[in-house]
UniProtKB/TrEMBL annotation, chain A:
Residues 50-66 have a biased composition (Polar residues). InterPro entries: Cyclin-like_dom, Cyclin-like_sf, Cyclin/Ssn8, Cyclin_C_2, Cyclin_N. PANTHER family: CYCLIN. It comes from the Eukaryota. Residues 367-385 have a biased composition (Low complexity). Component of the SRB8-11 complex, a regulatory module of the Mediator complex. The keyword Ribosomal protein does not apply. This is RNA polymerase II holoenzyme cyclin-like subunit. Component of the SRB8-11 complex. The SRB8-11 complex is a regulatory module of the Mediator complex which is itself involved in regulation of basal and activated RNA polymerase II-dependent transcription. The SRB8-11 complex may be involved in the transcriptional repression of a subset of genes regulated by Mediator. It may inhibit the association of the Mediator complex with RNA polymerase II to form the holoenzyme complex. The SRB8-11 complex phosphorylates the C-terminal domain (CTD) of the largest subunit of RNA polymerase II. Residues 94-179 form the Cyclin-like domain.
Automatic annotation (TrEMBL), chain B:
CDD domains: RING-HC_TFB3-like (cd16573). Keywords: Coiled coil, Kinase, Metal-binding, Nucleus, Transferase, Zinc, Zinc-finger. Residues 137-201 form a coiled coil. Residues 18-61 form the RING-type domain. It comes from the Eukaryota. Residues 240-262, 353-376 are annotated as: Disordered. One of its GO terms (molecular function) is kinase activity. Its main location: nucleus. SUPFAM superfamilies: RING/U-box (SSF57850). Residues 253-262, 360-376 have a biased composition (Low complexity). InterPro entries: MAT1/Tfb3, MAT1_centre, Znf_RING, Znf_RING/FYVE/PHD, Znf_RING_CS. This is RNA polymerase II transcription factor B subunit 3. It is found in: Nucleus.
Length: 423, 376
């Protein structure tokens, strides 16, 4: 199918589609790495504090006591699990929806949906323990306003963000986020596909449907008769016209796409057209099945050997899996237990936040030249302490000052050396 | 019938005798002997004039009834009349069986062909199966007229180009020699001039500077000669490059226009492949633009939201076409419907080792970013 090949060229398919178990193992791995790093960082921070204390007091602690306290503290550090991280990310996805709602006029659905997908993609390879979602969330929303072509100025955007968030706070992690997104900003949403499908169904209901290229013996009249004689679904009143039914199905499907499709892993596991048809299956099953039959031939119409028969059975299992995934979603706001759990996770995160990554602004100011040396240094120890950065920067500044003394452009290198030797 | 061996063996300079008129060289010192490739009987020039001036006649040698013509008589090249005859036969066979090595499939076929040709020559020379061999040769010649002709042309061309190259090389060598001679002369002159200059400066200068001036003069001389040498080197290289480009083989056209030889005399000839006729250019590589597999696009879809746009000049003035919207939404409705990520992505990850490594949080450290992200 040529349409499928179109989709296979997209970055969403190439880089951001995962098999279910590989997505799981990817998250576990991220979580494990991040927890190791958090433990290491906290231990280092504590040691630094202790040595400062001991030097201030001037009396060295007895060794046994020191080891005891260390052992006791080691137990304290309890990191988030991968599942808790996922819940946290989902909470912040819902926050994005609310934040988008709070603007006047509210941000378009597609901007919010893109931002949510950015956030989800970001936290596949990053852990909330390393970068708190609180700082990343406004940034992804701001990037999404730009990539989805509904730009607003940064100051205006920052005004809408609750709390004392400054414009600088929002764009500080921008490069970091883009890097983690692997600079792929294209998110394929199911919304436009839904528009197209409903548009075609509307045309069919008025007897304007054209036959599918591979099933040339469909006639517009047949299609119209089929669609008007469909059995009613469980959530539609029996006495409604076809166009009413389509409008209701459209509305319900869109609601599912706006909430469940965003908050679950659907985008990673399924393609946008599979997502919207699964959502349509949830909101009006007979209609969705009829539509699929017009595209791939009904089970009765085609012989067993036809390639569509195989495709159809495979597609139906995939769509059913997808719709169970979408159906499993429950909004957090309506769930008191989930809210309580979220509060617990938040508290836990407060204790296991990586202290070396807390201040993003300080890290961003690293000049590029030292960043290169830091990169080599961090090959062994990825988290270069901030003090090290400052030391490097200071050193560079000092060197610069010395060079300027001789000549504004810096003297000739060889000459200078020989002169120094002569002196 | 070849002439008897006795006649040839007893052939002194003095007592050479014309077998026809029996006059000897002793009597007639200017006597020249001629032969006719028809029967290779030797006779003196005056006999040829006498017997064949008035048209074709029989060979005067007893027992030989070949009809000879005067214009075929020629001077003998080799002393041994047998060698003369073999060379003639060889030449004749070679002009007919003039296949070239590149026309054969393999080295073995080419060798087989050579052997076959030698055998035919041997047969003709020694009178074994002469009739059959001649018939074969005749048939082959008539069947492969065209390829024989092209091969002859090729050979002629090769000979002429070889000669041309030879001439060119000689000319170049001459030019080089002349240049070298001039060069030597110039050098000699310069050396003389600088020596004179040195002497005059020594004469006019103070005695204290003498050593310095002499050293300087030596240096100038050396510098000049080294500059000249590098210049020469440059020119030589240039010429060599020119020669290299010239000496590309002229016309290596594989003129394999051989007809399928009907008699099958020669085996193992390459099949002639006529090039496939080029297909007309297809810019879409076999795809039909706007062809889709899941749906057929209509010109118009009824919709209460979109229909007003069709008449709205404010929208249409910018060039907006609702058709774009239709095709895009319908394409997105079905793009990827048949992509089963669970299957395809795991297959892709298995096939490519560097598909997607779990990067962890280290990849996002801003300082280390460029290195770790680049490696993905």
């Amino acid at each position: 199918m040529i349409e499928d090949d179109f989709y296979r060229t997209s970055s969403q398919f190439r880089l951001w589609s995962f098999a279910e178990d590989s997505l799981h193992s990817l998250r576990q791995n991220t979580n494990r790495l991040a927890s190791d790093r958090v433990r290491g960082a906290l231990r280092r921070a504590r040691e630094a504090r202790q040595s400062a204390n001991s030097s201030a007091v001037g009396t060295p602690n007895p060794n046994g006591n020191d080891a005891d306290s260390k052992l006791g503290e080691e137990k304290d550090i309890e990191c988030l699990t991968a599942e808790e991280e996922q819940d946290l990310v989902r909470y912040f996805c819902e926050q994005i929806v609310q934040l988008g709602e709070s603007y006047k006029p509210p941000l378009p659905t597609i901007v919010r949906a893109t931002a949510i997908q950015y956030l989800r993609r970001f936290y596949i390879t990053n852990s909330p323990m390393t970068y708190h979602p609180k700082t990343i969330m406004p940034c992804v929303l701001f990037i999404a306003t730009k990539t989805e072509n509904s730009y607003m100025s940064l100051r205006q955007f920052a005004d809408g963000v609750p709390g004392d968030t400054t414009a600088d706070d929002i764009i500080t992690p921008e490069f970091l986020v883009m890097q983690s997104l692997r600079f792929t900003f294209d998110v394929r949403h199911p919304f436009r596909g839904l528009e197209g499908g409903i548009m075609e169904l509307n045309a069919i209901s008025r007897g304007l449907g054209l036959p599918t290229p591979h099933l040339p013996n469909q006639t517009p009249d047949d299609l119209r008769r089929f669609i008007s004689s469909l059995p009613p679904s469980q959530n539609t009143p029996t006495s409604s016209s076809v166009s009413d039914r389509l409008a209701r199905a459209y509305h319900n499907t869109r609601e599912i796409l706006k909430s469940a499709a965003q908050m679950t892993d659907a985008y990673f596991l399924y393609t946008p057209s599979q997502i919207w048809i699964s959502a349509l299956l949830l909101s009006d099953r007979p209609l969705a099945e009829f539509y699929l039959d017009t595209k791939l031939g009904g089970s009765a119409q085609l012989p067993e050997s036809h390639p569509f028969t195989h495709l159809r059975t495979k597609l139906l299992t995939t769509l059913n899996n997808c719709s169970t995934l979408l159906d499993s979603y429950k909004p957090l706001a309506s769930d008191a237990d989930a809210k309580k759990a979220m509060r617990r996770i938040g508290k836990k995160l407060y204790h296991c936040q990586n202290p070396e990554k807390a201040n993003l602004a300080g890290q961003k100011r690293v000049p590029t030249a030292t960043a290169a040396t830091a990169a080599t240094a961090s090959a062994s120890d990825p988290a270069t302490p901030e003090s090290e950065m400052e030391r490097l920067a200071k050193k560079r500044k000092l060197e610069g000052g010395q060079a300027e003394k001789h000549d504004i452009f810096g003297g000739e290198l060889v000459m200078e050396r020989t002169k120094e030797r002569q002196i | 019938m070849p002439p008897s061996r006795d006649a040839i063996v007893h052939r002194g300079d003095e007592d050479e005798v014309c077998p026809v008129c029996k006059s000897s060289r002793y009597l007639n010192p200017d006597m020249r002997f001629l032969i006719n490739p028809e029967c290779y009987h030797k006779m003196c020039e005056s006999c040829v004039d006498r017997i064949f001036s008035s048209g074709p006649a029989n060979c005067p040698v007893a027992g030989c009834h070949k009809t000879l013509r005067k214009n075929r008589f020629r001077k003998q090249t080799f002393e041994d009349i047998n060698v003369e005859r073999e060379v003639d036969i060889r030449r004749r066979v070679m002009t007919v069986l003039n296949r070239r090595e590149e026309e054969f499939d393999s080295k073995l076929d080419w060798d087989n062909f050579l052997e076959q040709r030698e055998e035919m020559i041997f047969n003709l020379v020694n009178g074994v199966d002469v009739g059959k061999t001649e018939a074969d040769l005749q048939q082959y010649a008539s069947e492969n007229m065209r390829s024989i002709r092209t091969n002859q042309d090729l050979e002629a061309k090769e000979v002429s180009s070889f000669q041309e190259r030879q001439n060119q090389e000689q000319e170049l060598a001459r030019i080089r020699r002349q240049a070298a001679r001039e060069e030597k002369e110039n050098e000699r002159k310069e050396v003389m001039a600088s020596r004179e200059d040195l002497l005059s400066r020594l004469a006019s200068g103070r005695p204290a500077d003498a050593a310095a001036i002499a050293r300087e003069g030596q240096k100038v001389l050396l510098k000049k000669s080294s500059a000249r040498r590098s210049e020469e080197e440059r020119i030589r290289l240039k010429q060599a490059a020119l020669r290299g480009s010239d000496s590309k083989k002229p016309g290596q056209a594989a003129a394999t226009a051989a007809e399928e030889s009907g008699s099958g005399l020669i085996k193992g000839l390459k099949k002639i492949k006529s090039p496939e006729p080029e297909k007309p250019y297809d810019p879409f590589g076999g795809m039909v633009p706007n062809q889709r597999d899941y749906y057929t696009l209509r010109d118009h879809y009824p919709s209460p939201y979109l229909d007003p746009i069709r008449q709205d000049t404010r929208v249409l003035a910018g060039g907006y076409d609702l058709q774009e919207y239709y095709s895009r939404t319908l394409l997105e409705a079905f793009a990827g419907l048949g992509c089963f990520i669970n299957e395809e992505v795991s297959k892709r990850e298995a096939s490519s080792l560097n598909a997607m490594k779990p990067v962890g949080t280290q990849g996002a450290a801003p300082a280390a970013g460029s290195s770790s992200q680049g490696s993905k």
